[in-house]
Design goal:
4 domains; elongated
Amino acid sequence: MASIQNLGTNALLAYQRAMVTTGHNIANSSTEGYNRQRVSFATREPQLEGGNWMGSGVQVAQIERMYDDFLAGQVISSQSSASRLEALSGQVTRIDTLLARPESGLDDPLQEFFGSLQTLSNDPSSIAARHTLLSDTETLVDRFHFLGGEYSAMRQDVNQELENNVTVLNGLADSVANLNKVIVSARGSSGGQSPNDLLDQRENLVKEISKMISVNSIEQEDGALNLFVGQGQALVIGATATEFSVTTNPSNTLSPDISMETAGGSVVITNEVTGGMLGGLLEFRQDYVDAGQNELGLTAVGLVTQLNQQHALGLDLTGVAGGNFFQDFSVLGKGDLTNSGTGVVTLGFVESAVGNVTTSDYRLVSDDGADAYTLTRLSDGTTWAVDGSLTAPQLTIDGFNLTVSAGANAGDSFLIQPTRDAAESIQFVISDPVRLAAAGSLRSAEMVDANGNPINTGDGTITQASTNSVTGIPLSSDITFTFSNDADGSGNSGFTIAGGPAGPNDFVLYDPTTNDIYGKTYPDSSNPTQFANFGGLSFSFAGTPVVGDQFQIVNNSNATGDNRNALSMVALQESRFLTGGTTSLQESYSQLVSSVGAAAKGIDVNLQSQTGLLEANEAALSSVGGVNLDEEAANLIKFQQAYQASAQVIAISNQLFDTLLNAVRG
């Protein structure tokens, strides 16, 4: 009779635990990250009675956590990717809005600036037009400053976000390490049974970590979960969490690194960080803030160098050479914080080579502590040997020259960012409208007598001369061209040249029988550098001059109505002189706007796709571990009935025992 009672009691306890577990599931049906638990029953060990093995009832084998490691890994992976894209989406959209809106972008001020130049070219003597140009130039400069400042502010925001997220990451890692300790202890005290609720808590923490950074996990035999990031850097090992920190980058203090503390000291792992908010922020800083600010700076560099070069070739209302329109850029190399020497590196742009300027950063390293340096273009690893002893370096590199002062020690390193700060540092240097140089510096004309009447008898003509440098300008003396049938002394017709630094080839050939219709431009292919020593002079002859006809190129005077230099400055708007002669100023900025816009759209599409994948993976995991209230209600009824039946077995056992006692007493 006692065995029947034990059988009922064991069953009663087993189904009581089943109902408790079912109630636990129902109670946590809305708890995020909770995985359904299920009681696994097993028959108790049978007993040998009367030569037969008699069953002894049921027992709870384990309380099983309904969980799928593979599906959980898919959720963690997709969560990391979605968080990365979420971080990118908001930040890139911010830049896209900034650049594209008329009230904050550069397109409208750039258009208005060149529009004012066009107005000035229509009436070069107008003081009102000159004032308008000054105002619109200041507006353009202010917009460059604003955009450059916004990029710098975004970099600071990203750096602060990195610090905040690293702090959160460290807290989560500590929590996982602490739970590992508790879980290992709980498994040991229960004979190896898993503390399911603690495992759920730990899994939720790992998912939160995956929002910060891409993470991989490996479970140990004792139940502890080890977490790794990047290329195997340990985040959590057993009950120990590695502390991450944001540290100063000695090579670029404005872009701090992410480091981890090890027994050997702090180790930089910035390049190993992928996925999650941290990966998205680092990607945004490098690919959109740094690169975008460099591209914006390239537009500023192109504007300054070309406007300065062209403005210097003209004359203002007083007949004085124009000089700079903007202040020249002077870029200082940023010495590494670990440098032991006192060397200083400066960079200057070469106006004639501005088309070679890139948006890349560079690193200059002292090879020997003396004059040997190696310059590396960081975008592709291209290197150059630089002789630091030369005041004017022997080569122009990507549109700039370097000047290196003495004092650098071997291994000293300098970060060079040619265009990074150009937008923020651009400065307009003209405040007097009279100083705007709208007129050309030289004037071409046929010879006239004392009364100003033409003296030539042929129908030859000369175009207005243009220049491409200020070398030899203004002219020390007028340049006179006299037509001759024997200009070169060999019977070839052309013009002999007198005055000015004409050089050894003091003639230009011109054959009226072949050149009269379309004319001929000088310098020509036979002597392309003939006029380099006075302004890089360029002009054309046309028509049929007769022997003795003369033309002159002279310094332009009383040229208040001359608009030739203003027109040349206007032409810079459409001139393709950037990126190897393929991009204009307007196109350079438009490419930046369109690339950011396309990136913002692409990231948004990918975010929607990744969010959908995350939801699908979470749904798949929920189908395994999620609580179904209908199913739990059915289980509760089933276990209740089994519990009641077990109680009835105990009651019957007691009745049988009482009957037996009464029979014995009787």
